[in-house]
Amino acid sequence: MEIHKQYEDFGGKVLSRHSLINYLSEALHPDLLVLSSPGVASIVLFRRKASTGTTFRTVEDADDDCSSQAMSSLGRNQE
């Protein structure tokens, strides 16, 4: 959420939060790690910093576009 806020502060208007995270993840792969779970904002960090004792803070995300129905469908497709 903070990354998208900064994106907007710098004049960004094209990408949604979800699209911005996807774009950054692809552009900075494999250095960027994105942790996500339905209902909470994604956590974005650099892999080299992930193991340095970082404390994570979750933020409720009412705009989360990942429904439990979609997750259930995804799980069935993996079987």
What can you tell me about this protein's structure?
This protein is of the alpha+beta class and 79 residues long. It has one domain. It contains four helices and two strands. Strands 1-2 form a two-stranded antiparallel sheet. Strand 1 and strand 2 form a beta hairpin.
List the SSEs and their pairings:
Elements: H1 2-9, H2 17-27, E1 32-37, E2 40-46, H3 47-50, H4 68-78
Report a brief summary of the structure.
The chain has 79 residues and is of the alpha+beta class. It is built from 4 helices and 2 strands; from the N terminus they run H-H-E-E-H-H.
Question: Biggest β-sheet, characterized?
Answer: 2 strands, antiparallel
Number of H- or I-type helical stretches: 4
- What proportion of the residues form beta strands (DSSP E)? 15-25%
The structural class is: alpha+beta
Unreliable residue stretches:
68-75
Output the helix-strand order: HHEEHH
* Helicity range: 40-55%
Average residue-wise pLDDT: 77
What structural keywords apply?
globular; two-stranded antiparallel sheet; 2 strands; alpha+beta; 79 residues
